[in-house]
Amino acid sequence: MCPPARLAVLLIAALTAACGGDERTLTVTATAYTSSPGETDDTPNIAAWGDTLAPGMKVIAVSRDLLELGLVQGAEVTIDGLDGRYVVLDKMHPRWNEKIDIYMGENVKKARDWGRREVTIRWEGAED
Q1: Tens digits of per-residue pLDDT, 41-98?
Q2: How far apart are CA 67 and CA 57, in angstroms?
Q3: Residues in Cβ contact with 128 at an 8 Å cutoff, skipping those fewer than 6 apart
Q4: How far apart are alpha carbons 26 and 49 in whole angstroms?
Q5: Which of 9, 6, 10, 29 shows the shortest CA–CA distance to 121?
Q6: Which residue of 2, 69, 87, 96 pairs with 63 in a disulfide if CB–CB is 3.0 to 4.6 A?
């Protein structure tokens, strides 16, 4: 269950998305993942929507609660502190909330070094 203040932030974010076009921000927990069979299944390069992942791609997976905020397949986000734009091409297990997973290709060490951090993500709200 979300604390009331966090619930208010999510509600405002959802309402902003309905109005469309504005930059949206949200602070989330960020971890990292790789295309290793131990982290996924027997098709480690295939994301949840069927997209094929390859090392070097700037991709994130999102917790399913973020889908409602417009972070759907193909949405582009920036992550404060990281260069470039990341594309949403994967979604996480339903047990996670307010979380992203940054794709690190096959570099398990890089993913472990990333660890778990709080980051701010930015994206454009949906247009009406």
Answers
A1: 778 899 999 999 999 999 999 999 999 999 999 999 999 999 999 999 999 999 999 9
A2: 21
A3: 18, 19, 20
A4: 23
A5: 29
A6: 96
For residue range 9-48, what is the model confidence (pLDDT) as tens digits? 444 445 544 555 689 999 999 999 999 877 777 788 999 9
Total residues found in the chain within this entry: 128
Question: What are the domain boundaries of the chain?
Answer: 4-124
pTM: 0.79
Name the CATH superfamily housing domain 4-124.
RlpA-like domain (2.40.40.10)
Is residue 73 within 8 A of residue 49, CB to CB? The reply is: yes
